[in-house]
Amino acid sequence: MLENIEVCPICENTSFEAFLTCKDYTVSGETFSLQKCSNCGFVVTSPRPLQKFLGNYYKSESYVSHSDTQKGLINKMYHWVRKITLKRKLRLIEKINHFQKGSVLDFGCGTGYFLKTCLQAGWQAEGVEPDENARKIASNNTNKPIFASLQEIKNTQFDIITLWHVLEHIPDLNETLSALKSLLKPTGKLIVAVPNRDSYDAQVFGAFWAAYDVPRHLWHFSKNDMQALCQKHHLQIQEILPMPFDAYYISLMSILYQTGKTQFVRAFWQGFLSNWKAGKQNTSSLIYVIKLQ
């Protein structure tokens, strides 16, 4: 069963226009529509599965962030790149926290590898993961319990809250941002990484762009969208940072969806081209460092 998004979560406009039709290449093979707000331009997946059925669209070994599978060359590459990006993410939060150990909440922690990296580096770290299977793997990886929801966290605030490719998955976008904001210390920072639908590779691949990832990705952000959403919640974007590795992986998967073939050379060139054209603030995915106003 499907539900329509009738109100834009950013500007509260009630009028949408057709944007794209995309296929779920990972799990179901179904097609889904993307609609664009006629006022602010925010793109949403609509109609989309009811929230109680969304979990069915994550049940695949191909969905590596939840299954932790290393089967196949692409998934092996994913794990290899992740080792590098985990170190970069740790350096980022250390820099943001003035190179002092602090407290971090990883919301949507998946199988717990970033959480484990933080714990090993001496941070006080907690994780939230709604998916039961991923939560069990994360708990085993970190040797600690993982929260199933933000509501389970009581009387605690954090120096850093991270959402690594999570915000685009969250059905209750505004309610979740309000809850996350309440869990930040007054000087705390929210770090949000999301795909960038204005990136060069998004324009090249169109409906085949792997980062649309319907129906798991419910929202499709541009920099303007993130700016408007932060303003709505009295948050301020302090810095926007690139995620250059994403362009290569997304290009590889997009070409696979487009042609049915794995083309490493073409994907590497497309990823390089996307990063070259992007500069530092328009890569395939972007990291937003956000503070309280």
Automatic annotation (TrEMBL):
Matches recorded under InterPro entries: SAM-dependent_MTases_sf (IPR029063)
SUPFAM superfamilies per record: S-adenosyl-L-methionine-dependent methyltransferases
Signal peptide (residue range): none
Keyword field contains Coiled coil: no
Pfam families: Methyltransf_23
Gene3D superfamilies: Vaccinia Virus protein VP39 (3.40.50.150)
Domain of life assignment: Bacteria
Gene Ontology biological process terms from the UniProt entry: methylation
Any one Gene Ontology molecular-function term assigned to this protein's record: methyltransferase activity
Coiled coil: none
Record's keyword terms, sorted: Methyltransferase, Transferase
Protein name: Methyltransferase domain
Species assigned in the record: Raineya orbicola
